[in-house]
């Protein structure tokens, strides 16, 4: 039982213990008055609120690829091991979170097997330690809602500064579809960021506000094109690669700040990120580098195989069955011929 009750800071340990026991029993009695249905409803609502924030990722058939089932299971176990306050405090802007330029999808030790209690505890401790050391300690201290936000930020290597949110995932890793849902920018604004692959194997960014208490703006890599105001409809941005490498997206409520960013980023070259190699896309979509072939191709192959086997069957039949009949006819002719002699 954890309490924010005003316990004596010093004095008799027995008095402190008695006071704590009284408080815990009081809370237990309050909980026992609730019906099973009420407890289940509160439990369900709490998890629904947590899962409102999250990530969607396209399914990959590549060997050892990280997919939604493993991601969701890991998030569930981590969240189950942290407190969820009944009255969560407001989520302030976590400046410096997430601090690593490498997104956590790359960290293989964070995605271990979860089949044993020891592995679950190990994964949980690794996750919480990583988030705390990468500038997300303020979010972790808020309990489950803060940890959820910190994990989603780490998936895309999103980072908050004092004046903007930047998307730091390198363009070479954008070879799958991602949707980062309801990133909290303060307590009253939620942002959705989607990475979508096009037919030409190039990725684009789609950004929209889930809700907001003020205008927000965004600009792509380098901020050379100037900020664009965001709304509830998805707004498309190209994925740009800069030299040196910088963030591919900046979001801020301060338009002037984004205007000034173009003079503060100091990039030498800015251009659209190149298309991903077909073999990489095919590996995720089909499990091998050859890629998918059209249905007509496989129908044609099946047809040729069937025709070949029919032809082969005919040859075998003529060789054995047809040859036997010819031999029998030949013998009968000679038999008649010699019988006449």
UniProtKB/TrEMBL annotation:
Location in the cell: Membrane
Keyword Transmembrane: yes
Pfam families per the UniProt record, alphabetical: DUF2152
Listed transmembrane segments: 296-317
Sorted UniProt keywords: Glycoprotein, Membrane, Signal, Transmembrane, Transmembrane helix
PANTHER family referenced in this protein's UniProt entry, alphabetically: SIMILAR TO RIKEN CDNA 2510039O18, UNCHARACTERIZED PROTEIN KIAA2013
Full protein name: Uncharacterized protein
Species name: Cuerna arida
């Amino acid at each position: 039982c954890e309490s924010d009750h005003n316990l004596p800071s010093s004095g008799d340990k027995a008095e402190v213990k008695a006071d704590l026991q009284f408080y815990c029993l009081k809370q237990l009695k309050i909980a026992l008055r609730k019906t099973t249905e009420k407890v289940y409803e509160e439990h369900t609502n709490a998890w629904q609120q947590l899962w409102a924030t999250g990530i969607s990722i396209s399914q990959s058939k590549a060997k050892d690829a990280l997919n939604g089932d493993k991601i969701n299971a890991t998030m569930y176990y981590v969240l189950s091991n942290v407190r969820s306050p009944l009255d969560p405090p407001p989520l302030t802007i976590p400046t410096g979170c997430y601090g690593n330029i490498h997104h956590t999808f790359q960290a293989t030790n964070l995605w271990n097997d979860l089949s044993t209690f020891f592995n679950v505890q190990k994964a949980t401790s690794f996750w919480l330690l990583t988030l705390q050391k990468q500038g997300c300690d303020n979010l972790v201290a808020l309990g489950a809602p803060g940890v959820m936000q910190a994990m989603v930020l780490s998936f895309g290597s999103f980072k908050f500064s004092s004046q903007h949110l930047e998307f730091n995932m390198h363009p070479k890793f954008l070879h799958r579809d991602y949707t980062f849902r309801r990133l909290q920018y303060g307590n009253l604004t939620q942002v959705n960021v989607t990475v979508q692959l096009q037919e030409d194997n190039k990725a684009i960014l789609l950004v929209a506000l889930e809700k907001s208490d003020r205008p927000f703006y965004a600009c792509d890599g380098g901020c050379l094109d100037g900020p664009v105001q965001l709304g509830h409809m998805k707004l498309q941005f190209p994925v740009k690669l800069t030299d040196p490498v910088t963030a591919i997206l900046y979001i801020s409520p301060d338009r002037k700040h984004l205007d000034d960013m173009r003079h503060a980023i100091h990039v030498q070259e800015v251009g659209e990120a190149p298309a991903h190699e077909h073999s990489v896309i095919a590996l995720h979509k089909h499990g091998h580098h050859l890629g998918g072939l059209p249905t007509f191709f496989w129908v044609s192959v099946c047809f040729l195989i069937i025709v070949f086997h029919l032809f082969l069957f005919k040859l075998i039949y003529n060789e054995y069955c047809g040859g036997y009949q010819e031999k029998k006819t030949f013998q009968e002719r000679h038999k008649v011929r010699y019988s006449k002699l």
